[in-house]
Design a protein that fits this description.
By secondary structure, the protein is an alpha+beta fold. Helix content is 45%, strand content 18%. The chain has a 3-stranded antiparallel β-sheet with strand order 1-2-3, with no helix packed on it. A hairpin with a 6-residue loop joins strand 2 and strand 3. Helix 3 packs across helix 4. The longest helix has 25 residues.
Length: 133
């Protein structure tokens, strides 16, 4: 991770105090070989006195925790990106229902959401029991 506050008018974004560059390598867990490398850039209006390198990294990790805990589950496991519902308030309502289902499963101690969804779909009584119905 590299952080720079020496911008000297190099960016046209207003209020930029720091620029962050993070290089990530995605590894294959089975072979431990590097699959790909990516570089991500971030900008912040927080100055060094308010946000150290460690604090900025914490903010970025916190963002990705949300991404992997919720959005990735909605996209990959529940298939939100494949949904054909695109008009009116229906997409927002379905997103709320997907979040509700994910939250109910997590509160019930389910760590593998895909497995929990399969279990509930095969046995509706089990799904209703999670709702205390």
């Amino acid at each position: 991770m590299r952080v720079s506050s020496a911008l000297d008018g190099l960016l046209s974004f207003p209020h930029v105090a720091q620029v962050i560059r993070i290089e990530r390598t995605v590894d294959d867990l089975k072979t431990e070989d590097a699959l790909s490398t990516e570089t991500a850039y971030y900008v912040t209006s927080l100055e060094e006195t308010r946000a150290s390198k460690a604090k900025l990294l914490g903010f970025i990790r916190q963002h990705w925790e949300i991404e992997t805990a919720l959005h990735w589950v909605r996209d990959a496991t529940i298939g939100e990106d494949r949904s054909k519902v695109r008009s009116g308030s229906a997409p927002r309502a379905l997103a709320a229902l997907r979040n509700l289902v994910t939250s109910i499963l997590r509160l019930a101690g389910v760590t593998n959401i895909a497995k929990g969804l399969r279990s509930g779909s095969r046995n509706p009584a089990r799904a209703l029991a999670l709702l205390a119905l």
